[in-house]
Each structure stands twice: as structure tokens, then as C-alpha cells.
């Protein structure tokens, strides 16, 4: 079994970039063209909550997380995620959890009003309906980390303490 320091170190490195500021634009000249029409057509304003959900989904796909379901209850501000994993070792599961939680925390840092991520890991093999583990991440934990009240290790540990293996 891996040492706690190894697992926390792995997750801490995943969370370390959570609050990094976005890169500044280059000083390249920009061109602005304005076109006016006689009858303006209304453009629907995108729902920021849904935009963050879509961004989180794209992040997970870019990290090769096998999404089964990703939904959000905006009123309760809870995001529900189910994904497949073939990982069985604590190291691999912890790494995957760190990646997913880090993506959630990045969206929270970018202004997502979601308060909690509830994740379910299901088996990726023949018994795909078998639940491997459940865990959660709380936005308040990230906010405490972002303020400097807790360390990256403590943030990781808070997430890992919620893991319930089935």
C-alpha cells in the first residue's frame, strides 16, 4: 500500500495549479470591425452555470475520463458525475480523483457557483454497472485553499476522506 505522503503528494501536484491566474494576452495588434444591421437580432445570453458545466465536461474528456453522466442541479448547486474506471489500486484511483476534483476546483476558481461535486466511479469492465467508489468535493474547501487557510495537502486529504469504496 502506498504511503499517505505519496498519495497526498500526487494529489497536491494535481491541485497546485487550481488557482493559477490565466495567461496575459500578448501585445499583438488587434483588428476590430463593427457591422451594424437595420434590425438587430437578439442573441441569447449563455447561462454561466451551464457554460461552466460544459467546460468541466470538456476538461474531463481532454483528460480521458470516461464520462457516463454529468448533470447539475443549479438550484441546489450540486454537480453529479458518474465515470468509468478500470483502476483498482489506491494509487490509480487517487490519481483519477485528483484529476477530476482539480477540474471541478478550476471551474470554481473561474466563478462557477456550484457548491459540491458528487462523483460515482463505476467499473469499466464487463460489470460496468458495479460501483467502485463514491466521493465528493466541496467548493468551500477550495475557497479555503484559495484564501491560504489550508494547504494543497489538506485540500487533497479532505477530498480523499470522502472516498467510500464499494
Automatic annotation (TrEMBL):
Stretches that traverse the bilayer: none
Q: Where is the composition biased (Low complexity)?
A: 23-40
Q: Which Pfam families match?
A: DUF8159
Q: Per the record, which residues fall in region Disordered?
A: 19-48
Question: For the DUF8159 domain, which residue ranges apply?
Answer: 53-165
What's the protein called, per UniProt? DUF8159 domain-containing protein
Amino acid at each position: 500500500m502506498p504511503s499517505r505522503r505519496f498519495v497526498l503528494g500526487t494529489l497536491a501536484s494535481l491541485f497546485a495549479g487550481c488557482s493559477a491566474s490565466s495567461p496575459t494576452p500578448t501585445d499583438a495588434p488587434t483588428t476590430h470591425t463593427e457591422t451594424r444591421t437595420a434590425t438587430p437580432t437578439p442573441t441569447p445570453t449563455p447561462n454561466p452555470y451551464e457554460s461552466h458545466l460544459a467546460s468541466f465536461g470538456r476538461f474531463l474528456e481532454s483528460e480521458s475520463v470516461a464520462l457516463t453522466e454529468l448533470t447539475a442541479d443549479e438550484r441546489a448547486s450540486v454537480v453529479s458525475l458518474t465515470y468509468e474506471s478500470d483502476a483498482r489500486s489506491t494509487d490509480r484511483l487517487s490519481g483519477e480523483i485528483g484529476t477530476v476534483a482539480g477540474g471541478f476546483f478550476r471551474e470554481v476558481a473561474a466563478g462557477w457557483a456550484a457548491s459540491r461535486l458528487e462523483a460515482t466511479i463505476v467499473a469499466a469492465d464487463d460489470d460496468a454497472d458495479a460501483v467502485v467508489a463514491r466521493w465528493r468535493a466541496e467548493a468551500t474547501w477550495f475557497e479555503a485553499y484559495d484564501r491560504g487557510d489550508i494547504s494543497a495537502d489538506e485540500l487533497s486529504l479532505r477530498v480523499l476522506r470522502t472516498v467510500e469504496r464499494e
